Each structure stands twice: as structure tokens, then as C-alpha cells.
User: What shape does this take?
Amino acid sequence: MNAEEIKQKFEEAGYETWMKEREEGVRIKAKRKSLWVKVDKDKIRDAVEYFIEISDVYPHFSIISASDEGDEVELNYHFTLGFGKLHEEFSVNFKVSIPKNDLVIKSITKMVPAVIYSEREIREMMGVEFEELEDKRHMFLTKDFPDGIYPWRRDETAPKETNKLYETWKEGAK
Amino acid sequence: MRYEIPVGPLHPALKEPIMIKCTIEGERIVDVDVIASQNHRGIEWIGMNRNNPVQSLYTAEKICGICNLCHPACLTIAVEEIAEIQAPERAEYIRVIQSELERIHSHLLWAGVAAHELGFDSLLHYVWMVREKVMDTLEIVNGARVPKDTMMYGGVRRDIKEEHVPKIREMIEYYRQAFNKLAKLFLEDKTIKMRTREIGTLPYEEAIKLATTGPTTRASGVKKDVRQDMPYFAYPDFEVKAITPDILTGETIGDTYDRIVVRLLEVKQSIDIIEDALNNMPGGEILAEPKIIKLLNQIKKAEGEAIGRHEAPRGEDIHYVKLKSGFEYLYAWKVRAPTYINILAWRTMLMDMQIADIPIVAASIDPCLSCTNRVIIAKDGKESILTADDLHRLSVKKTRRLMR
Assistant: This one.
């Protein structure tokens, strides 16, 4: 199934989607396509389950990325599909917004086991709680890293004490 | 009786820090837990809070010493897409050549490490001697053996000049001749076969399910290669085909031996790509916008998000970037190096193996822990520590035992 067909399938199922394309190559041109799907936070499992169901092969999970959007935290679940064929792969990205007053989302580790490291990382870096995530140990931060400080956030929970050394040689600093 | 052996924090294969906690029954491994890291360099944080996007290119280069082109490459692909910057044709070709030079040196480095893990140090020295040719070429082209500092949004910083071309062609010829000897040494040696055939096997289904990438997944028969599947730079011109071990051996087992086969064949493939690129390199500029301040202003005005994907020597590297208009830094930046995802497969590979197999199996994914892990734990509680040297000794012992 190609990118357009997957897009149509998601639209039929009631999801908001959009596609981005960029042409690459000099003598031979090929398009890099990325399909974006907006998903409600309560429906992440349904969306991923549906995606696996409509895909010809098991989708390749890449990573979850995150950004602090003020009152919300935005997560992007990046997958790819169509690999193994010349110039036919495209990325499928699920975009989920989670309000900061209820930073909880269901874990998808049961469906996509490879997601575990990423969920653990987002949990410690962004403070998003993953329901039914079995392994909640820190992934990259120290065991004793304080609770309530999340390095990737842009609000009051971001780390305040950072390396002062940098400030001293920053341009214009005294 | 079950014992827990924490392998690490000094990595048995690479002297890089990671902990593989193995539960063993006698010699047999029955469970594996990977403790990735306890210390973070915060590269993404620096890109999101301190550095402007051009500075972040150089920070990205420092994520990994060996594959130092692939991280700035990913960042460039993503930012160029958001800011709608198009690199000149010549620059796209130079990027391909640089990427393939990196693959050759990385795969040969790995081959030496693999030989060392098996206790075959004369082969380590031979491979690393052969590797010097590509290091010399990199030095001629970039002015330094390891760091390239050549990626820039909208092109590359250094041209491949007329006088470089004969040197690169000489390197191509050198590796064409060296390839058969290397293949014979690695693939026909009885001891290497004994230590790697059906050791650390990753079946096709598991490789797919665990989302492994690069030579690790291709050795299990998954024909996945970003250069083939979703090409970038000038890669569509070369119609790269993903290499699986059956091309050479007629079968795919997905074991450590197959990972050696894939990497060796990829060295050959890289040589062909470089030659093709040199033969067809277009002329012209190498930068779309040589003035950095102007370029920075263009990026600062851009808004949007994109994913940069690049086939690094260890597998697929991915950067997610979000830019906001007027925001000085990258608004969001997520780096996913190939080892991040490939270490998940260690458990499957190591189950039912022996302790002495840990070094070569761990090394078989070509882990680059700087991609993943930035840590040293001196000692964790009461756990006793099996040092890298101990493991290496065990590995050498097993080789000797098999040779009897």
C-alpha cells in the first residue's frame, strides 16, 4: 500500500491527515513523502492498531519526538512503511497533543515492543506518564535525578541549574 | 543455580560505557537486561536552548566520533526541508561521496574490532592497516582524519577539487584489490566461522518487530536501507540496493557471520558508489548561500517540522526538527542514532548463548555507545564486576578451545 492509499484509509476512519513531499536527486528524481496523522490522546492505541492492521508488512517504528507547546506537550510517533522497495518508503507520523494538567497517555509497548526505550525517555525528559508501561526506570538520566524536573520542557519544570561555565565565555558576558 | 553477571559499565566490546546485565545458568545466558545510561550529555538540550542552528550542526557532529557526518546530515535534511533550501547539485554529490567514505572507514574499523573480540589480533592489525588508506583519503579531502566539518545547510563547506580525484581513484583501486583478501580472511577462516556461525542469531521476524536498522537488520534478511527506500542527497541517481547476506552465501541466517558478510559487501558497494559519483559529478557551486548570517536569518524566519533520515554505517539515523519563526534555537530536536534502537535486539541475540559469546555478539551490531549512552558507573551496589579484560580473556579461551 502506498502513502496515498494509507492516507485515504486514515481519512476514511475519521482521522485528520496531511502529506508533505520533497524532491531529491540530481539525474533521477525521487520524492520523500511523510504522512502526518492527528490523533486524540485517548485514541493512540486505536490508531496504531489500525495502522498495523491496514499495513501490508509490520510497520517500522523509528522514535517518539516531543515538544513543549505551552499548555500542551506534543508527541510525534514516527513510523515508516514501504521499505524494501526502490524509492517507495514513506514515513507515517502520529501527532498527539496532551494537556499539561493531565499528562497521561496509554503505552503502546504491547503492540510495538520497540517503543519501550522511547517511552521511557519521553517519560523522564518530558514528564509524560505512560499508562501500563511495565518498565518505568530512567533510561538516560541518573537513578537519583530529581522528580519534577524535565529537561525538554520550556516551563517552570525545566532545569534551572545548568552549566555556568558556558555563561562565562558566552559573547558579551562578563 | 542462576547468577546475574553485570557486563559493563565498561563495554566488553568497545570500551564504551553500557551495562548488559546477563542472568546465567552455568554458561548459558537465560535473561538479558540492558542498562543504557545514567549520564546524559544533553546534546538535544544544547540545540534547543543554547546554540543557533549553524552551531548545532557542529554539536551534532560531536554526537559520534566515528559517524560524524551522519548527524549533521540528518539535521541538514530536516532544516533544509523546513526552510526550503535547495543545495546545489555538486554539493549533493559531494555529500554522497563523504557519506560513503565514512561507511568504508566505519565498517573496516568494526571488522578490526570484531577480529579483536575473537582473539584474532593479527587480523585486527591487518584490517586497520588497510583502513589507513581511507583515513588518508579523508585527510586529503577534509584536512583531518576523523572530523569532517563539511556539512552546511544548503550545501557543503569543502569542494572535492581536481587534485583530490586521482587520490580518491587510487583508494578505489586499492580497496578493489584488498577486498578479495579481506573476504577470504573473514569468510573462509575456520575459527571465525566457528565463533560466529549461528551465534547471536536474530531471526527475520524479530528484526522487523524490534525495529532494528542497518547491517543488523539486513543481515537478518530485511531489505531495508534508507539510500534505497527513501533516498536523499543525490542517492536516487545511484539506485542503491539493500545488501543481504544471501547475495554472497546463498542463504540468510541472521547470525554474527551474516553481519560480517553484509558489512564487507557494503564496503564494496560504497567503492562503486564513490566511483560512479566521481564519474558523473556535476560542476558548479557547492553552497546555496555562502553568507552564514543571511542563512541564519532565513532559518530563523522558517516555521515547521521535518524529519531527516540518513543511512549511517550502523543503520538509519533520524533527526526530528521543529522550527518556530523568530525563535533563535531549534524549537524541538530529537536525535535517534541507530544504536539506540539496535541494542533492543541484544536480548534476542544473546539468549542461550555462552558468556564468552557476549563480546562478539554485542559487537556484532556495531554499537556506538556515544550515540546512546554517556555514562560511567563505577560499581553498582554489591554486584561484582566482570571487566572487559576478563571477558576478552574468556573469548580468547573459547577460540583456543575450539581450535584444539
Remarks:
- The CA atoms of residues 230 and 236 of chain B lie 8 Å apart.
